[in-house]
Amino acid sequence: MNKILNEIKQIINENLGLYLPKVKTSDLEENGNIYYMNGKNGTEFDWYVNDKISEFMVFYDDKDNLGAIKLTLYSDGGIYICIYGNKGKKLIKEVQTKIEVSKEEIFQLAVTLKNEADDKGIFDASIEKINSDNKMPLDKVNEFKNNIKYYENMINQNKMFNMLACVSKKITEEGWKVGYMVKDEPLNENDSGWVFMAGNEADEYVNDSKNLELLNIYSVYQLDPDILNYIDNPVGMRFIRISSSEFEIDKNDKEIYTEKRK
Q1: What are the phi and psi torsion angles at 129 (to 5°)?
Q2: Are residues 124 and 10 in the same domain?
Q3: What are the tens digits of pLDDT across the range 230-252?
Q4: How many domains does one find in the chain?
Q5: Which of 151, 174, 206 is at the close of a domain?
Q6: What is the pLDDT of residues 28-59, one digit of tens each?
Q7: Do 242 and 140 fall within a single domain?
Q8: pTM across the whole model
Q9: Is residue 261 part of a domain?
C-alpha cells in the first residue's frame, strides 16, 4: 500500500482508539476498513477545485451505516478529522494535524487514485482494494496535469468566493436581496472590489460605516444566489436588479427592483 495511505490508516486507527475507545472493530463495517470516498465528484475534481484528496471514512456496521470517522487530506499535507459517536449521529471531536510529505508526493497519490480507482470504476471502496503501489507512467501524470483546464472556471470561482466584499446591512440584517452591485478597484489581494447594496439605501445610510460590513463573497452568495452569474465581471461594472431573479448593466435609465428574501 502507498506510504501516505499507510500513514492515513495509522492516524485513523489512533483516533478511533483515543476518542471511540468503547467501539469494537466488530461494531464497524468490515471490521473497520477504511473507504476512499471518491464517488461524489472524483479525485481530479477534489484535487483541483477543493485542494484536497477525496475523503477517507470508516463506517458503523448497522442499518443506518453512518460514519464513525472522516479524514480529509489537503494538498499541503494538512489533515482534518471528524469523529462521530452515538453510532454516527453526533460529532464528538474535530482534530487537525499534518503529515510530513511534500505536495508532489500527495499529487502523485492523487494521480494514482484517479487511475487505479476512478478510471477503473472503483468508487467508495476499501483502500485495501485499490492498487496504490503502482508508480504512474509519465503520460498518466501529464494527462492529470493537463486536465486542470476543465476546472479553471470553478477554481477561479472558488478564489472569488473567498475574497471580501462590502455589503449593506439591509442585505445581511434586514433581509433584502442584492439590488445594486458595483465592482470597484480592489484595495488589496483579499479584496474582491465588489460592493453589494439592497438598492433602497438613503445617502446618509450608506455614508455611515456602521451600516456596512465586510463579508466573503460566498457568504453573500448564500444570502442571494442571484449574484453568481455576475461576480466574474471586471472592475468598473455596475449591475441593477430588474426582476426577482435578474440583473442588467446599470445605464442609469431604470429603477432598481427591490425585494426581500423569502
Answers
A1: -95, 0
A2: yes
A3: 999 999 999 999 999 999 999 99
A4: 2
A5: 151
A6: 999 999 999 999 999 999 999 999 999 999 99
A7: no
A8: 0.77
A9: no
Interval 154-202: pLDDT, tens? 999 889 999 999 999 999 999 999 999 999 999 999 999 999 999 999 9
Q: What is the DSSP string of the chain?
A: --HHHHHHHHHHHHHHHHH-TT--GGGBGGGT--EE--SSS-HHHHHHHHSEEEEEEEEBSSSS--EEEEEEEETTSEEEEEEEEGGGTEEEEEEEEE----HHHHHHHHHHHHHHTGGGT--SEEGGGS---PPPPHHHHHHHHHGGGGGHHHHHHHHHHTSEEEEEHHHHTS-BPP-EEEEPPPSSTTEEEEEEE-S---HHHHTSGGGEEEEEHHHHHHH-GGGGGTTTPPTT-EEEE-SSS-EEE--SSSPPP--B--
Domain, as residue range, for 223: 162-249
